[in-house]
Design brief:
alpha/beta; Helicase, Ruva Protein, domain 3; Ubiquitin-like (UB roll); 3 domains; seven-stranded mixed beta sheet
Length: 397
């Protein structure tokens, strides 16, 4: 799956991306620094099975730190969106299309209110960040509506005249957005459109349907960035009250980037997502002041910089994915002797058979049974897996 980072220009998207990936990207305080989407790898946290078995693991992908497995996930950062992006303003159509591949969106918001709608600097606190959340949802909803309505009049008449299955036709129309027939059927029923002549659907009904498709296929989490800037905390509390249904977290991407860079250069030891760090060497005055500020105003105040929390929540709370480790009843090593080398992320409701196919198609095609290694129990192919399970697949040879 892929995480997409969205937001208006200069809100801190590229800083968030760099903090999450430690990739070199252009960062500047002016609109449209990013034109082509940046693509990289970030990591989400999972309690590692090595703790359960009291062994030292050897991850092939990602890494394990303090009993926490950091599992790799692809992430993209597209250029900033501005109001009327779906109409092409600010090269908006291209940037929206770049998001097509994303399964979940992290909306980076300048919670300090120091940027106007176009991403231009204004006096801190003079712009209401509530507007950013509203405008971006509207832009993406209208993007979905534009796709839904392509050739709509002819499309609707053809469905009506040929007595086509409405849910199948609409799902095909929206297939590029990962809309399924089952999803369409559920939403038509929910919105009272099931059984209603498609040629009579109103513009408002179409927009509501497009919005529901967007919420299902591009769920969104808010990273309230620049929380350490004056007025940021108060703005965050106001935004929370305005949008109680949205997941949002206080965030300082700049602080996270500083901590990860310091850890990379072995100046400090820092576990992404934690509320503290430890110095590994003597710091100069400038380093000490910067790190003291982060500890006091970010980590001690908010519990973390927020970056890792947002990444984790996007996968495990919004998408509700589960992490499964391959392992054997007799041994936890692979053929090269690596202990618990892999950790796979699977959609909710995944079964033992789904996991077998995830590892290799031959295992799925020749599936016999699976073993729940932690509980030492045999399970069938329809057994639904739980987050953190360790599973051995047995197949015909």
């Amino acid at each position: 799956m892929i995480i997409g980072i969205v937001g208006k220009p200069s809100c801190g998207k590229s800083t968030f991306f760099k903090a999450a990936t430690l990739m070199d990207v252009d960062i500047a305080n002016y609109p449209f620094t990013t034109i082509k989407p940046n693509s990289g790898v970030t990591y989400v946290r999972v309690p590692c099975a090595c703790q359960f078995f009291h062994v030292k693991c050897n991850p092939r992908h990602g890494y394990c730190k303090g009993g926490i497995r950091y599992v790799p996930v692809q992430i993209i950062d597209v250029a900033g969106l501005v109001p009327d992006a779906h109409l092409g303003k600010g090269r908006g159509n291209q940037f929206l299309n770049d998001l097509n591949q994303a399964d979940v969106l992290i909306h980076v918001v300048d919670i300090s209110g120091s940027l106007n709608a176009q991403g231009e600097s204004v006096d801190t606190g003079s712009y209401n960040p509530i507007k950013d959340i509203r405008f971006l949802e509207i832009e993406i909803d209208y993007w979905y509506l534009d796709i839904l309505k392509r050739g709509w009049d002819r499309f609707a008449r053809q469905i009506q005249q040929e007595h086509q299955d409405i849910k199948r036709a609409i799902a095909k129309q929206m297939s590029s957005m990962k809309v399924t027939e089952q999803m369409t059927e559920e939403l038509l029923r929910k919105l009272g459109l099931e059984g209603k002549l498609i040629t009579t659907w109103s513009e408002d009904e179409l927009l509501t349907l497009a919005t529901e498709f967007r919420r299902r296929t591009k769920p969104m989490i808010i990273a309230a960035n620049k929380i350490d800037v004056k007025g940021g905390k108060e703005n965050f509390e106001r935004v929370q009250k305005e949008f109680p249904h949205l997941l949002m977290f206080p965030c300082s991407a700049e602080s996270e980037l500083a901590l990860r860079e310091a850890d990379k250069h072995e100046i400090i030891q820092y576990y992404p997502g934690s509320n503290a760090f430890t110095a590994k060497k003597e710091l100069n005055d400038k380093q000490q002041q910067a790190l003291d500020f982060i500890q006091q105003h970010i980590l001690s105040t908010f519990g973390s910089t927020g970056v890792q929390n947002v990444l984790d929540k996007s996968i495990f709370d919004l998408l509700k994915y589960i992490a499964i480790f391959p392992g054997g009843m007799g041994k936890l090593q692979d053929q090269d002797g690596n202990v618990l080398p892999d950790c796979f992320l699977l959609p909710p409701g995944s079964t033992a058979l789904d996991f077998a196919f995830k590892i290799h198609s031959d295992l799925g095609n020749n599936f016999v049974k699976a073993m729940d290694v932690k509980r030492k129990l045999p399970v069938g192919k329809e057994h639904k897996l739980l987050h953190g399970d360790v599973v051995e697949i047995m197949a015909r040879k």
